[in-house]
């Protein structure tokens, strides 16, 4: 069953309606807003993977029949749902056909060899045998091809896989045989990859799974180990990429073409849940209060919000639980003190944003969970302990989508010596409320970092470099890799040059950008992503010199003032792939380059793939 408020909000956001995060989850109200938004418009809307006629009858109420040539396309695996989606005398059910022999072989060989003609002759007959067994089913073809891509090119190996495929779709029902094919790919995984894949069973069907959240949970669970010179984060990302390469998960991308997360095919999720149950890897509590898994559980996924679910939770042996994920949790929260071995705790509130009247989630007793490594809370008003005295192993604290109670009081981080990732609330105030931040020597990610302007001004302009705030902070967390600022600062701090491992710098908005500030940033050896904004540029021009920004791949530059020119000299930013320039404040009379653009030297960016310029 679809989560209807989310579907409606997704459609609204795609037809240009802003502010959907703050909207109530009232389906009828969302339908009326969408109808108003579509009035007098010509639209094309695609609804993917419908499973019930009831869902369709709810969705269709939002579509206005305005005779403007609009179209609605739905996809489903159920014939009755397809028929229900057709308007009388207007709709048409299109039965998707299986791939023919040519398209099947093209998909298969391109996945394996990059070209249809790349198959060695000795493997051609075996390949054709396997293709015949797949009977044109795309998922079967890509699954087998992905499995073969990780094998040696020996005839014996390929024959073994062909023989293990069984008789194929000729004698087995589609779903049963597909499960068998997917099991072949699963069985070929290493123990580490199998464990990482099974963990995806914590998420419901069609859920968008964030990459960073997932890999941090893998690490917290102890699924991934450092190896071959890779640290934990790099090793976990390698596992994530390997599952993509093997077609076990499907990636999705952000607006800049970067992998943001993944989704799991329904059939693959069915296989995962089956394996989880068989191996007692995870217990899933669904909307029917069915418990998929044993009562002696290691991991729990609560996928439906209801007060009565607390009674279901009481049935499990909570003292053995290592990981707990609550979807739409509120008044069904169990006593956390009973989860003595908990490593991962991820809790979503009842909505898709935080409202001031929401109940407060009191986590002041969380210090008893001394093994806790990962804590994420979303869509709650939140009470944290004043001190995290016993959470010596906590590596991730993500409370971005929360409101703190009280808002002007924050915790002492001094004891969180293992903390690697700190994501603060977006509405959070000044950094002076955070105690012990500069002592977090293992910190790699810091999001929504805000500093009181008076503190910055005093530190940067009057205090000695060895004692001012930035120098004290940047020198301590030597492993800092991601930093997102939440407030503008006077200038680029010189001491940021000490952040040798900094790879992502977001929201760096400076009151005054000068050439020396650019040079400071240009020296960062690992900087991959830079989001830089300038309110004033006294020199009226920016020059990116040769052999600077050696690792930068993505550069966003927002200018809110007059800019005469921005020039990229030869060999500048040698790895830059994406360039986005937003010129808000320039005047046409100041532009000195052709085509009314102050940007020059684009041809010197040898690796550039995409460029966006707005003015």
Automatic annotation (TrEMBL):
Signal peptide: none annotated. Residues 415-611 form the Disease resistance R13L4/SHOC-2-like LRR domain. Pfam families: LRR_14 (PF23598), NB-ARC (PF00931), WHD_DRP (PF23559). Keywords: Plant defense, Repeat. Residues 202-272 form the Disease resistance protein winged helix domain. It comes from the Eukaryota. The keyword Repeat applies. Residues 6-113 form the NB-ARC domain. GO terms for molecular function: ADP binding. One of its GO terms (biological process) is innate immune response-activating signaling pathway. Gene3D superfamilies: Helical domain of apoptotic protease-activating factors, P-loop containing nucleotide triphosphate hydrolases, Ribonuclease Inhibitor, Winged helix-like DNA-binding domain superfamily/Winged helix DNA-binding domain. The keyword Heme does not apply. This is NB-ARC domain-containing protein. It comes from Panicum virgatum (Blackwell switchgrass).
């Amino acid at each position: 069953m679809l989560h209807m408020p989310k579907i409606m909000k997704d459609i609204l956001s795609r037809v240009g309606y802003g502010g959907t995060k703050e909207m109530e989850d009232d389906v009828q109200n969302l339908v009326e807003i969408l109808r108003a938004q579509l009035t007098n418009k010509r639209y094309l809307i695609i609804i993917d993977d419908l499973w019930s006629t009831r869902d369709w009858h709810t969705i269709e109420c939002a579509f206005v029949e305005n005779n403007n040539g609009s179209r609605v396309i739905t996809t489903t695996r159920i014939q009755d749902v397809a028929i229900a989606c057709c308007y009388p005398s207007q709709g048409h059910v299109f039965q998707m056909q299986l791939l023919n022999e040519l398209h099947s072989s093209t998909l298969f060989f391109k996945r394996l060899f990059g070209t249809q003609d790349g198959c060695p002759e000795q493997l051609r007959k075996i390949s054709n045998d396997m293709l015949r067994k797949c009977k044109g089913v795309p998922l079967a073809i890509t699954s087998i091809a992905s499995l073969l891509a990780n094998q040696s090119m020996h005839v014996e190996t390929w024959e073994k896989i062909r023989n293990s495929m069984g008789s194929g779709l000729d004698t087995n029902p589609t779903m049963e045989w597909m499960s068998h094919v997917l099991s072949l790919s699963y069985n070929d995984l290493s123990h580490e990859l199998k464990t990482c894949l099974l963990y995806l069973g914590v998420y419901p069907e069609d859920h968008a799974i964030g990459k960073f959240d997932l890999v941090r949970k893998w690490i917290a669970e102890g699924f991934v180990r450092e190896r071959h010179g890779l640290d934990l984060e790099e090793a976990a990302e390698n596992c994530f990429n390997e599952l993509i390469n093997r077609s076990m998960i499907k990636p999705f991308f952000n607006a800049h073409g970067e992998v943001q997360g993944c989704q799991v095919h329904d059939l693959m999720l069915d296989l995962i849940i089956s394996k989880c149950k068989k191996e007692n890897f995870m217990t899933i509590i669904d909307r029917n209060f069915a418990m998929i898994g044993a009562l002696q559980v290691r991991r729990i996924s609560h996928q439906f919000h209801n007060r009565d679910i607390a009674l279901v939770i009481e049935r499990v042996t909570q003292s053995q639980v290592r990981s707990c994920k609550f979807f739409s949790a509120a008044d069904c929260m169990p006593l956390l003190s009973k989860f003595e071995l908990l490593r991962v705790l991820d809790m979503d509130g009842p909505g898709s944003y935080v409202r001031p009247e929401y109940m407060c989630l009191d986590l002041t007793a969380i210090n008893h969970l001394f093994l806790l490594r990962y804590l994420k809370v979303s869509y709650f008003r939140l009470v944290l302990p004043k001190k995290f005295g016993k959470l010596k192993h906590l590596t991730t604290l993500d409370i971005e989508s929360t409101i703190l109670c009280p808002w002007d009081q924050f915790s002492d981080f001094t004891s969180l010596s293992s903390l690697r990732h700190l994501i603060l609330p977006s509405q959070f105030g000044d950094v002076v409320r955070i105690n012990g931040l500069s002592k977090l020597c293992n910190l790699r990610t810091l999001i929504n970092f805000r500093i009181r302007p008076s503190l910055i001004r005093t530190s940067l302009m009057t205090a000695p470099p060895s004692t001012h705030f930035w120098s004290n902070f940047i020198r301590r967390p030597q492993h800092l890799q991601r930093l997102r600022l939440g407030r503008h600062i006077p200038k680029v701090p010189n001491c940021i040059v000490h952040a040798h491992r900094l790879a992502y710098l977001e929201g760096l908005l400076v009151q005054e950008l000068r050439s020396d500030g650019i040079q400071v940033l240009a020296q960062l050896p690992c900087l991959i992503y830079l989001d830089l904004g300038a309110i004033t540029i006294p020199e009226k021009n920016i020059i990116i010199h040769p052999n600077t920004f050696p690792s930068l791949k993505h550069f966003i530059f927002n200018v809110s003032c007059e800019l005469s020119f921005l020039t990229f000299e030869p060999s500048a930013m040698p790895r830059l792939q994406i360039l986005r320039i937003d010129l808000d404040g320039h005047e046409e009379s100041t532009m000195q380059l052709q085509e009314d653009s102050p940007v020059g030297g684009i041809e010197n960016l040898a690796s550039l793939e995409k460029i966006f310029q707005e003015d």
